[in-house]
Amino acid sequence: MSGCEARDAKKLVRSPSGLRMVPELRSARSPFGLDEPPWVPDKECPRCMQCDTKFDFITRKHHCRRCGKCFCDKCCSKKVPLPRMCFVDPVRQCAECALISQKETEFYDKQLKVLMNGATFFVTLGSSDKSELMVCRLSNNQRYLVLDGDSHYEIEIVQISTVQILTEGFTPGGGNTRAIGMVLQYKVPGSEELTQMKFTAGEDFSCNKKLSASWLAAMHKATKLLYESRDQ
């Protein structure tokens, strides 16, 4: 097994919430992941935290795997995939959490693949007036933004501080906008200063415009998940 394979190795673990396939090394976890929440102790939860129904021998309590709160079966009956916590199978979630997890499914089923497949942009580093045509993609382990052209960069996702999507086509009347690029700032390991990088979709590559716009939209969603993970 190579060093990279060893770092990305996974193991199957069982928690009170279900089976999870997690990285053997915590440092190898996805930057979009969430930790399992602590469950509200049974003794602190005599009633459903949604409908206030009192628990008894017939009305049993269930914990939402995403928020850890306590609900009756009616308020926590949905089993929904939760890839951000690495669950192997769909798990029980309250209605509010199930809705959030269902919306995230599109990112994991579609947009993550778009990011890994990559797209082509003109990339400008810092205040330079020169740009370089590069293929930009998310690494398979989701931890790096990889840029390949004449130069090569690997930006650790957790080191990205801000991402601004650049658009065009907005009108005061509410016209459609189209993503044409992005500006991101990140920290180089060992330095506290921020480095800026600008990505612009090339006007000469009309066949790639749609691909670039899709990649930028996926990156916008990825950024939102990244911020959520940090705020956990």
Automatic annotation (TrEMBL):
Zinc-finger as UniProt keyword: yes
MF-aspect GO terms: zinc ion binding
Domain FYVE-type: start-end pairs: 42-97
Keywords assigned by UniProt, alphabetized: Metal-binding, Zinc, Zinc-finger
Pfam families in the cross-refs: FYVE, ZFYVE21_C
Keyword Zinc assigned: yes
Protein name: ZFY21 protein
Lineage: Eukaryota, Metazoa, Chordata, Craniata, Vertebrata
Gene: Zfyve21
